[in-house]
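New to this. Comment on this protein:
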Amino acid sequence: MTEATAAPPPLPLGTALPPLALAIVIPAYQEGATIAGLVARMRAVVPEVPPLVVDDGSTDGTAAEARAAGAEVLALPSNQGKGAALRQGMRAALAGGADYVATLDGDGQHRPEDLPRLLALARPDRIVIGSRRRATGQPAARRRANRVADFWISWAAGHAVADSQSGFRIYPAAALTALDRYEGRARRFSFESEILIDAARAGITTVAADIPALYAGTLKRPSHFRPVADISRIVMMVAGKLLARGMDPAGLRRALAGLRRLEEEGRNDVSP
């Protein structure tokens, strides 16, 4: 696989989307500089679905900017972490009758125009991830940390997961039926890893669509993701799940075979 392969260009506005009962959830903390533009672009892609911005205790006007741009806003009273903010948004989406919940970050690193690529792969028995695995532009430390997480999460899930740390996703409602199990833990980034494992063990696999890695010139603030600390938490979480299953050697074999195919074939849509 060639790491320098460019991500595909965004689809043009007006591209037909599958007829899905869709909700769009954007967790946001201190994203006042980017959230309005992100919301406006998402409204142009999916005019009939106002995104739900979950303001995670921001103090920089994030909620007001999002609301003025046309988003629905759920304002949390204090900063609770990305995982907690996502779960609040997911619960609201399910309560509104959504069959699928799309999520993306509020810092501008995900292009709303790529949403149709993910929607084209959506099914009730799969989670779709926007994968930067083949894209250029990702900081080296972040790329290495993501590869470590991909290995461990793939092992515990029992199949290859491409770019397990990407927040651009589409979840079927079936993957979100037990959100309460994560309360009191999984407040930061580990939630997005743990839910992939739990979904896989419930028969919901993960596939991925190529998206670009947007960092330099796009992000308006330092990332909230801390590669060493957050990946360490993720690895500890995964290790606990593997120990509970006797280290799952069969899952390891399947994961390694799938990850090898990802590297050899240069594609992200490997399913078990």
The radius of gyration is 17 Å. The CA atoms of residues 3 and 134 lie 5 Å apart. Confidence is low (pLDDT under 50) at residues 1-6, 267-272.
